[in-house]
Structure formats: C-alpha cells, structure tokens
Design a protein that fits this description.
Elements lengths: L1 H17 L3 H12 L4 H8 L5 H40 L18 H15 L3 E2 L5 E3 H4 L18 E4 L7 E3 L5 H9 L4 E10 L11 E11 L4 H16 L5 E6 L4 E10 L16 E10 L1 H6 L8 E8 L2 H7 L12 H4 L3
Parallel strand pairs: 1-5
Antiparallel strand pairs: 2-4, 3-4, 5-6, 6-10, 7-8, 8-9, 9-10
Bound molecules: 3,4-dihydroxyphenylalanine (DAH).
Length: 344
C-alpha cells in the first residue's frame, strides 16, 4: 500500500504539471483530494488496518495529502499569476505608437478681422459693446432721423418681422447704427465705444451682396469733439489695417444721422489706383461712412448739442479680408466650404 501511495503521489504531480487553467485545476482537486478519491478512501480505511501497518500507512497517506494540498495551492497561485500577466500584456499601452491627429479648428476670417478692428480701437480707448439683432423701427430708423417715408429708407432693403405702428414695428437691424441711440440713452458723455455685429438686408445675393453681413459701428461723444478728431481717428485706423503707404480719401457724403457726413475710401489694392473691375474703374474702394452726430440725434437722447458734440462711423467688415486676399465673392464667407475657410 505504501507503493500505491507513492505511485499515486507521482501520478498526481505528473498530471498537475499539465494543468493550465482553473477548470482543469478544480477537476484535478476532485480527482486526487475529493471525497471519492483513492487517497481519501485510503485515509478512511486506515482505522481498519492491522496495527503494524496502521501507523506507517496513516503517516504516509497524510504526508501525501499535505504535499498534494500544498502543490494545489502553489499551482493555483501560479495560474492566477499567469492570468494576470497575460491580461496585463493584452492591455498594455504602447507609448511609442504615433498619436491620433485631432483636427484643429481656427477662427473664421470674419472673426479674425473683427478681432483686429476691435484691437485697433481698443488701443485708442474705445470700449467694445454689442446689441440686439432684432430691433425696433425707432432705433433702426426714427431716432436716426429717418422717419417713415423718408427717402433714405430706400438705402436699406429691410427685413421686417412685424408691422407695428410708428416706431413699434420690429425688424432685423439693417445697420449697427441703432446702437448709437441705445448707448446714448444709457450713458452720459464722455462716450467712446465701438459695436461689432451682424446686420441684415432683404437682398438678392450676388458676388458683392449678402443678406447677412457684419458691420462695426463707432461713436464718440464729449465736449469739443470736432471733425479733426473724426479724421484723425479714421486715418489712424486705416494706417493700422491697410498699412502706412496706402492712400486714403476723405470726402463728403450724406447720411441722415450725421452733419456733415463723410465717406472714407482707400486706394484700390488690385490696380494701385489705376482703375479696374474690383474698384469699378474709379481707383478707390469705399470702406466706411461717418460724420458728426446730428444735433437732432443728440437732442433726442437728451444730450445738449450746444454743449456736446460727437462723431460716428460705420464700416462693412467682410470688405477688408476681400481686399486683402483678393476674394471676389462675399458669398464664400458664409457658405461653410471648408476648402475656402481653411486658407485663413
Ligand atoms: N449705417 C450706415 C450704413 O449702414 C453707415 C454709417 C454711415 C454709419 C455714417 C455711421 C455714420 O455711423 O456716421 O450704411
């Protein structure tokens, strides 16, 4: 029986060495250490053996049992270890792999230009404010000296939202000028502010017309503001945006809310003033309207025109990148073609 126990031990270890997963290990345990295994049966029968054999067989059987139990435990540990290692291996992060490229966005050319314009005026001490796109007739027209039936309303193809009486009709603002009134209603001079924002026109779109585009409005009101301040401010702006050498033209124009009104143009970049298709063969490109705030406009917001004066200006924004980069169709700006937008 001692021989039998030795063989059993050897056979068990031999089989255990081939076990390589927890299921097999459990089967092995049942086979060699389970209640019905030969080893346990031998252990149970020890009591009925003749006395001389009882001790040696009992001791040997117990020794084999302990040995198998500790082999089982060890195998269990090493299987667990192997499992962990292979799991870790399969989850390993290869830090030498090249990263996945993330698409990088950029600012829209209009936004870039707006930021540039705002920076120029901020450096001259103007604050930047914004106003509503949906506006009352009163602010967009009436308070700016454009009463109903005034011919200047023809300048603005208006998108009406509803038809209220008098100044109570709502519309999409056709220019940023209504913010002059809102600003002067709220604040007393000295005022120095610019207003970037979207404006809307009821327009059939073509290469030079969009139904939505951007303007930047400017307003300065204080004692002793003169035309010289207006001219100095706008010439400095042109110098910053278009460069030292670009010629600037300053001449009379008419806008109901300023007196006198002026128009600023710069020398055409495409033909250097010689005249071409871009500038309508005039050599000049208009970039903004401006003037001295009309005394009636000041009086309407309770600013005494005998004490205070001011200047105002308004410019189209898309014009600037169009001139700079030779873009010949304003519709490109808002048609969301990435091939166009990625160039800026
Ligand atoms: N609001 C005018 C337009 O959209 C532009 C303009 C002209 C603004 C003269 C002004 C100004 O502030 O003084 O055509």
């Amino acid at each position: 029986m001692l021989e039998q126990l030795k063989d059993l031990h050897a056979q068990a270890l031999e089989e255990l060495s081939k076990v390589d997963n927890p299921q097999e290990l459990e089967a092995w345990r049942i086979r060699y250490l389970g209640k019905k295994s030969s080893l346990i049966r031998i252990l149970r029968s020890v009591g009925s053996l003749p006395l001389d054999e009882r001790q040696s067989i009992g001791a040997k059987a117990n020794e084999v049992k302990r040995a198998l139990e500790s082999s089982l435990e060890e195998k269990g540990r090493s299987l667990q270890e192997a499992l962990l290692t292979s799991h870790r291996e399969s989850q390993r992060l290869d830090v030498t792999l090249p990263g996945r490229p993330l698409p990088i966005g950029r600012l829209h050319p209009t936004t870039q230009t707006l930021n540039e314009i705002c920076d120029v005026f901020k450096n001259m001490g103007f604050q930047v404010i914004e106003g509503p796109d949906v506006e009352w007739d009163y602010y967009n027209f009436e308070a700016l000296n454009i009463p109903q039936h005034h011919p200047a309303r023809d300048m603005f193809a208006t998108l009406w939202i509803d038809a209220g009486m008098g100044g109570k009709a709502r519309l999409l603002r056709t220019h940023t000028s209504p913010m002059q009134i809102r600003l002067m209603e709220k604040e007393r001079p000295p005022i120095r502010a610019i207003v970037p924002g979207r404006v809307y026109r009821y327009e059939a779109t073509d290469a030079t017309h969009e139904s939505m585009f951007y303007q930047v409005e400017g307003l300065a009101v204080d004692k002793n503001i003169t035309m010289a301040d207006l001219k100095g401010t706008l010439f400095e702006f042109c110098r910053c945006i278009f460069g030292e050498d670009r010629k600037v033209r300053f001449r009379c124009d008419y806008f109901p809310f300023v007196e006198p009104g002026v128009e600023v143009a710069i020398e055409c970049s495409a033909c250097a003033g010689a005249g071409c298709r871009l500038c309508g063969y005039s050599g000049w490109i208009e970039i903004l309207g401006a003037g001295m705030v009309h005394p009636d406009v000041l009086a309407r917001v309770d600013i005494d025109p005998r004490i205070y004066s001011g200047f105002a200006f308004g410019m189209g924004v898309e014009r600037i990148p169009m001139l700079r980069y030779g873009i010949d169709d304003i519709r490109l700006f808002y048609s969301n073609d990435l091939r166009f937008l990625r160039q800026f």
